[in-house]
Every structure is written in structure tokens, then in C-alpha cells.
Specification:
Length: about 140
Amino acid sequence: MAFGGGLNDQEDVMSEINVTPLVDVMLVLLVIFILTVPVLTQSVRVDLPRTQMADTVTRPETVALSVPEDGMLYWNGNRIDETELEKVLAEAAAADPQPEIRLYGDRQVAYERIVRVMAAVRQAGIEKLAFVTQPAD
């Protein structure tokens, strides 16, 4: 098995790859990397002051708006009617920050009923409306 054998006069192309220059370049890059990493990781130690941090993020509350099979409305588990829904939605829209409305719609309830509830939420000016579903088995 000969490596890099001589070329005959009839052969113009050498079919073997010379990897020596590639190995040389990789070794040089490795040495450069080994030498520069300790320089980059050096830092000045500073003993920073400690403070008590207060939670400045105000998280909006979530409201469960349920429409069971019978088509009635439940606001956080309390039964309400259409007029009460408009009233509580207006109060929720005026709150800062606005609550996130999570709509729990029963599978058997009419689609029209869900759409009317969604329209009432949007008319009240509430920005966040989420649908709660269960993953398929």
C-alpha cells in the first residue's frame, strides 16, 4: 500500500487527499484557543452590595368563565346571567391590569352560545381571552 506514489506521465490527476496541511492548521488553531481562553476568563472580583428586591411585576388575575352543557354562565364558579355578565366584564375591563378570561366551554353546548360570550368579552374591551381545552387521549 503506497501513499502518494509517483505520478506516471499518463496520469494527470492525483486521487489521494493530502491531509497534512489541514492537520497543521487545526493544531495551530487549537494552540491559539488554548492560549486565549485563560485570558478571556480573567475578571475583576467585585463585592456587590446586597439589597432586598421587591416583586415589581404585577401579574393579572385569571377569571374562569364557564359555559356548561345547560348554557348557563359561571364567573369563577358563581352563576350569573347575561346582564350580570356585562356588568362584571365592564368592571374587569376597567381594572389595571386587566384579568385574563379563561373560557371553559362544554363540548355539548351550542357554538352560538360560546360566540355570544366571546363577543361580550370583546365588546367590554378585555384584551386577553383564552380557551381551555383538554388534550386528546
